[in-house]
Amino acid sequence: TPEQQARFQSEGRKPTIRLKMPRQGKLVLKDIVRGRVEFDWANEQDHVIQRADGSFLYALANVVDDEDFGITHVIRAEEHLSNTPRQVFIIRALGYRQPQYAHLPFVAEPGSKNKLSKRKLKTYLKNRDFAELVEHGQKVLRALGCPQPGESFNPVMVEFYEKIGFLPEAIINYLALLGWSLDDRSEHFTRQELIEKFSLQRVNKAPASFDPKKLMAFQQRHMQLLPLEQKVAMVLPFLQGAGLIGEVTEALRRQVTRIVQAAGDRITIAGDILDFADFFLPDDKLPYDEAAFDKNLRCPQAAELLRQFRQRLATARPFDPPVLEALLRDFVQQQGIKTGQIVHPLRVAVTGKSVGMGLFDTLAILGRQRCLSRIDRALAML
Question: Would 84 be classed as within a structural domain?
Fold first, then answer.
């Protein structure tokens, strides 16, 4: 009332400005994703659009900003659908052109319909696939010598994938298919193909759950198709970050190229190159997996077989995978032993561990002198 207004002003109170919303009828919109959407005007509050200090609130500022920039489509998450009536009312009141709206479904938690949240890491770690993805990332960080990561190192955050060497194209491909499909069979898309084929009309209404295992499958597929030269370019910064290499010379680039090529599918993300640190460590600094060393080198005959095979490696010409494979095969036959009796001790002696890429590729990449040096060191430890 005028009396109340006078009293408020005498008290020094400053007014806020509200929209006077309709009280009858409906707002009917055609949302590109959700189809026909209706809102009862009677359910809308008289929203504040200007604060007492004179500043404007988002609802008005956003509408004016969009008009100023010529926005034709408003594409946003479905939780903003409730903001639409007040914005449409302002648009029409100001005589602006109304944009088209598309409200996208959110990404849901693994195995759930609840919205994915960066604050629920501990809960998501109960999901085996999610926990494996986190451990994969933490393994890369440990190899880089990074401090123990906190909750910000989280697969819900894009930064997680950047830090450990995911391909942006794989992330985009996976995220696109979380809420959209071209047909019932196509899954692999390059970024350009997505640009050409994507349409809002084929976006699903329902939320899709984040599936870490499927995301990793997309990463593997994109990584397999990546040219070797680009893979090498991706892994070099991780080797430098771990202090395993310095300036990249042509000789070093060739060595890394051979490692990446031989590793094949073992390098799923760029950070996986750090699983092959043994190629870059000085021979006298190579660490040994104690359990693997005891099991494979302290067993009967292992040391003697390794000494004898070392002598053959010393004279192998050329020192390449086919020759080394034939050399070992002949040795096994002449000694009357099983292949594993020499393969396992040899692998541990030259790499420090019991698993890795193909043994003959490993020997050839290390080269004769480094192999002999490492074998001698392993034998001296017995």
Answer: yes
